[in-house]
# Entry
Amino acid sequence: MVQGIDDVLLAIMDQHQSHLDDQRRSKSEDRLHGVVLGHLKFWKKKAVGIEFAKHFKSHLGPIEGLAVSADGLLCCTVSNDRAVKIYDVVNYDMMVMMRLPFVAGAVEWVYRQGDVKAKLAISDRNSCFVHIYDAHSGSNEPITSREIHMGPVKVMKYNPVYDVVISADAKGILEYWSPLTLNFPENSVNFKFKTDTNLFELVKCKTTVSSIEVSNDGRQFAVTSPDRRIRVFWFKTGKLRRVYDESLEVAQDLQRSDVPLYRLEAIDFGRRMAVEKEIEKTEHAPEPNAVFDESCNFLIYATLLGIKIVNLHTNKVARILGKVENNDRFLRIALSQGDKSNKKVRKIPTAAANVNESKEPLTDPTLLCCAFKKHRIYLFSRREPEEPEDATKGRDVFNEKPPPEELLAVSELGKQSRHHFLIVWCCTHLWVIFT
# Structure
């Protein structure tokens, strides 16, 4: 990974639901999100929070796929208009535009830091083919193409540690393949046949893949599915490590168990169950993902109770975030834990040299979340919010006029009391900090 570079947030808004439906993470000092009409916006990661950097009108229609390279230097967007836009993240500039002879399905950067070719994998939405392009060449012709699955590829995730791509099709079949040869990577794994693994687990359960996330050390990956189960696999063996059932039946059992960590008020629980059923009925509703922390010992994912932080070693829930936010059903999440290299050289001011006297953490670890039918990106942070100089103006900062319903919602915030802080970044570029 590149030193001195922070994490990236990627979010895409759904055209019909007008809410954020996808988040991913990579390495970069900037944050990006694509919005409802194909807009791409860059946000600079600061020591505390983020700030707007640049705005692009990337596509005529909604952004259907967005990926950032493992080194955090390149960004790519695809849409139904068959256009591929490639951006230089560091310089906030569009580098290459390609026109595909097919409608893109999944998109993923599949090269390591230092590779000569910046390989970009794009699947065909209507066939079994995956095409590899060299972003630096600017050519519309792929380097190589091959049928990886028996059906169209739905999800791809690159593991830069082992230089292997994990992909899934619409039937839930998982495949490993090398981006160089597009063949099975025999030298990178400890099995020869998938029958010796649990990679057919999703097919056995008659479910598919919603998202794939790989841990920083490359040793494991997490798969979320429409059956509301989160499965954690060991990468080298393809064996299941953990399965977490977040189905509605399990939620009801936990509610009846009266365990304080999971217990909700009856009215609140009923309201959340109604939202879950609405999500199931909503066509193209965003599905939750699951991400690893830097240590690779914790798995973080959103449920109807809030955002669970699970210790994979002890197999216990360490914490639930956003449990009191009963009006928000969090879905996609991304984690930014700060830059390790900066921690080594950053000096503490003399006045704050005493650890006991310094209340603010040196880094700003932030959990970024999207919610169902919300225009906002929610930021959870350990930092206490700062009070505005003019209390009459509140803590809202605008650089775009929000819709009328957004203004109405903000006007009602002052009438509600909060028992903990929650930092919210709206896609309308509005800071709202609850305390």
